[in-house]
Design brief:
mainly alpha; globular; single chain; 149 residues
Length: 149
């Protein structure tokens, strides 16, 4: 009986771990970004957005990361709860007027709209350190390879 209980517990943990990670394909992300008008938005093209999504989350729309200051980063663009969304855990300015959990939705609508709000403010994509380190000033056309839009 104990062995069966152990196996059931391990199985549940594996399923829970798999459920936590929801990674979209690169071209699927490109299609959603295109449909939401991200291509050319504020001078950034789909390849910029794809590079951003990859370096921030690896296209994992369910990614949540805790920061040293107690805030959390949510979703494919790792949008911070202190400024941009409300996670009901800590103080938030909630500048995107959205619950942080909405940034984890597979249709990416809330995440894209909030990211566009961030980009349209001062700094553009430079607001994301990882984008500055890994995407800025680099050739990015390869991000669109094979994506037929």
């Amino acid at each position: 009986m104990t062995r069966a209980l152990f196996i059931s517990l391990v199985s549940c943990l594996l399923v829970a771990k798999q459920a936590k990670s929801q990674v979209l394909g690169r071209c699927a992300v490109a299609k959603l970004l295109f449909e939401e008008g991200a291509d050319g938005f504020e001078g950034y093209y789909l390849s910029d957005w794809l590079c951003l999504a990859f370096v921030e989350s690896g296209f994992n729309i369910s990614k949540i990361n805790e920061n040293a200051d107690g805030s959390f980063d949510y979703g494919i663009f790792q949008i911070n709860s202190h400024y941009w969304c409300n996670d009901y855990r800590s103080h938030s300015e909630n500048l995107c007027h959205v619950d942080c959990q909405e940034l984890l939705n597979s249709n990416l609508l809330s995440a894209i709209n909030c990211a566009k709000r961030i980009v349209s403010g001062g700094g553009g994509m430079n607001n994301w350190i990882e984008w500055k380190l890994h995407c800025l000033g680099r050739p990015l056309a390869h991000w669109m390879t094979g994506c037929h839009l």
